[in-house]
Amino acid sequence: MADRSLRSRRNGNGKGPERYSAWGLLRKGLAQENWPRAWREVPLRDTYDAVIIGGGVHGLATAYYLAVNHGITNVAVVDKAYIGSGGSGRNTAIVRSNYLTPEGVAFYDRSLELYNSMASDLNINVMFSERGHLTLAHNDGAVRTMRWRAEVNKLQNIDSSVIGPDEIKKLVPSLDTTSDARYPIMGALYHPPGGIIRHDAVVWGYARAADHYGVEIHQKTEVLDILVEGGSGPDGKGPGGKVTGVRTSKGDISAPIVVNCTAGWASLIASMAGIKLPIHTRPLQAAVTEPVKVFLPAVVVSGSLHVYVSQTDRGELVFGAAVDPFNNYNIAGSLDFTEGLAGHILELMPGVSKMRLLRQWAGLCDMTPDYSPVMGFTPVEGFLCDVGWGTYGFKAGPVSGETMAECIATNQTPKLIAPFALDRFPEGTLVGEKGAASVGH
Amino acid sequence: MLIVPCPHCGPRNSSDLRYVGESHSRPDPNTATPEQWRDYLYMEDNPADWLKETWYCRSGCRRYFTLERHTGSNEFRNPPIPGNKKGTKA
Amino acid sequence: MVNTTDLDLTNSGVEAPTYRTSVVVTPATSGLADGGGGVALVDRGDHTKLMLRCDAGSAAAAALGVSFGSSRITDSGVVITGLRPDEYWLIGTAESVTGERAGLPADGLRSEVDLTHGRTLIEVSGPKATGMLEKVCGLDFSDAMTPRGAATSASVAKVSCDIVRAGDSYLVACDRSFGQYLMESLADAAREFGLTLGD
Ligand SMILES: Cc1cc2nc3c(=O)[nH]c(=O)nc-3n(C[C@H](O)[C@H](O)[C@H](O)COP(=O)(O)OP(=O)(O)OC[C@H]3O[C@@H](n4cnc5c(N)ncnc54)[C@H](O)[C@@H]3O)c2cc1C
Ligand SMILES: [Zn+2]
Questions:
Q1: Within a domain: residue B89?
Q2: Across the interface, which of B16, B63, B89 has its CB nearest the CB of C147?
Q3: Is the model's pLDDT at A9 over the cut of 60?
Q4: Residue A414: HSE in the Cβ half-sphere, 13 Å Cα cutoff
Q5: Which ligand 1 atom is at minimum distance from the Cα of A94?
Q6: Measuring CA to CA, which residue among C56, B36, C40 is closest to residue A276?
Q7: Is C161 on the interface with B (CB under 8 A)?
Q8: Quick check: C108 contacting B, CB < 8 Å?
Q9: A199-212 vs A57-70: helix axis angle to the nearest 10?
Q10: C22-46+117-199, what's its fold?
């Protein structure tokens, strides 16, 4: 594997991005110096080796690994708004690898590994906090599924086990573990390596590093159409066709490779190439409270109650839930979400009843029928997808970037993402990840 | 809360209904190929536009029906108005 | 209110009741009742509830004399409701419901199921009944939208319920397994208005 450290790699002019360090912070503070831009803003050119649509963690990571691992740097990442404006800047930043299927576990575990070394690889403080992750079981069926997941996890060397109410209470004293709770806590899947990370820093870190290697980032550049030739559709698009470029709000670009990393907007981009996806778009809402003294040491998730919670380093409680119940591109959010969320969280932690919610927001999620992504080649040559990330795709950013870059550079599907190919739907070989991925995080 | 115009019950909270999803016509199971059938099962248009979709009035009349809604503005196009909703209306 | 939990059914010498309603008075409900009378809740679980399904255009539907969304009270005191486009309920004492049923035309396809034991039925009355229901149900209870006689279904305290505005009171019915929860939720909602329990 190539050396990914920014310390040892410098671009052509010998000048790398300014190193972030405590000393630099102090010096700049004393000298009242400005910080240089973290990535360039350059005019859009009319041809690239690859165009990546979507400046979220998936698009930026793909660009970064194309440059670092494969030396492909004539790449543009285009985003209709600003980078991180999609799910990547709106998620609740939970990372874990205790999935249910062997395919899922192997994949997310590699991502966790990349997250672990990210701060030094990208020279940015991503505030990764491995604080432990608890998935609560409130009935016998759920306990059984937890045991199943723990065994699948252990076989793949993932630190994951089922613990009982006493141990849960020791780890998280604020949980109501009494047996007369409406949804009694009967056990939990405990995953010590799970935790939270600073999502913006991850996005900015990849952007800054990719830019350093020559990748261009074009914000406020909307893709309006995808140029395809020779396809079976009436307009020459669709299966059998070949991508020639994209039409953007800033002009046409010709490129032999176009990658769809647009999450909630994935179907719209795919339809521009004449491709249908097994995806529907749903908002996922989240909320945050006022900050209080730190009392919640781990990430706590309850599938039965459709709620999960973690406490930030600043002391706010961050809550998430399940996706909205109908297809929607509207992220206004709703009062019934807040009501449901508050009720459910109080079932778990009656002690937080006096806390006030500060904010509520939503992001678009690209949901698939088997709670697994759609990655790799499509029936249109040169048009690749890294979508279907639903409510769980932030944690997958690094490994998706790494494998998508390999897919593009080698023109072959890496083993790790073979189970997630689009043709599993016509072939009927879906991935059974629903049990572990249906709670929104 | 989204208010859904049930053709039988009138306007109802969406939490009283179940969302079934995009309305597509079902291929004939006797003649459809597995690929056609799976296409019907899994593939979606997912437009950011007007969408024909199926709802089930779970807590009300327990009927399935099709409505047209804009997935950006959440407006319903030509919302149905129940005919004889309240028989003894004063 | 019928309180059956205290009955010793084995050797009391009293004949065991043939029917137990799904609602019992627990400290959770009785503790909320101050007899204020703003809202009165009565467990009517022992009423006979006959579900009848037939086409809205059938002779049976015509004889029932109600359409979807409406209800009427017969001379024998049976509440006949059109709860769904093809579903009607007859609610009353066992004899009176049997009597009304006997009067229906025999011809035509229909199904009848006695769901007396399957459904909880709570009568909600009192000057604040409407205000209390508005707390736990999304329906518009104004006279224009839910006039006297209206029959409809909606979620009440998150439970799917049938709701009939019968005379001065409301009949609220749900599946039996949710009955206790529904009674406690209604009692809780009624508390601020002054709650009277029982009949
Ligand atoms: C509230 C919430 C909580 C979540 N919590 C978690 C969690 O705890 N853990 C986890 O792993 N995942 C979580 N997720 C899911 C995660 O956020 C997403 O799966 C992930 O961020 C997707 O990243 P992405 O790069 O694929 O897409 P995004 O970050 O959504 O980026 C897509 C980009 O495409 C751009 N775009 C769209 N259309 C066009 C166009 N026509 N032209 C140009 N650009 C376009 C958009 O502007 C956007 O920036 C959560 C999501 C939400 C909404
Ligand atoms: Zn209805």
A1: no
A2: B89
A3: no
A4: 18
A5: 8
A6: B36
A7: yes
A8: no
A9: 40
A10: Gyrase A; domain 2 (3.30.1360)
Taking residues C144-169, report their average pLDDT.
94
What is the Cβ-side half-sphere exposure of residue A381, based on CA atoms within 13 angstroms? 10
- pLDDT band, residue C41 (cuts 50/70/90): very high
Which atom, in ligand 1's list, is nearest to the CA of A61?
Answer: 25
pLDDT at C10 over 50: no
Residue B83 lies in a domain: no
CATH fold of the domain at C47-115: Alpha-Beta Plaits (3.30.70)
Q: How is residue A20 written in tokens?
A: 């972030």
Long-range Cβ pairs for the range A1-9 (8 Å, 24+): A1/A69, A2/A68, A2/A69, A4/A68, A4/A69, A4/A121, A5/A120, A5/A121, A6/A121, A6/A122, A6/A123, A6/A209, A6/A212, A7/A123, A9/A68, A9/A213
* pLDDT above 60: residue C1: no
As given in the structure block, the two tokens for residue A245 are 């470029």
B43/A329 CB distance under 8 A:
no
Q: How far apart are CA A244 and CA A227, in angstroms?
A: 5
User: What pLDDT is stored for residue C19 in this prediction?
Assistant: 62
Which positions in chain A have a beta carbon within 8 angstroms of at least one beta carbon in chain B?
265, 267-268, 271, 276-281, 325-330, 334-336, 369, 425-428
Domains of chain A, first to last: 43-96+100-124+200-279+370-436 (3.50.50.60), 131-193+280-367 (3.30.9.10)
**Domain for residue B63, yes or no?**
yes
Tell me if A305 sits within 8 A of A379, measured CB to CB. Answer: no
Residue A183: C-alpha distances to residues A304, A319, A352, C77, C185 (Å)? 8, 18, 17, 42, 17
- Phi/psi of residue B53, nearest 5 degrees: -140, 160
CATH number at B17 reads 3.30.2270.10
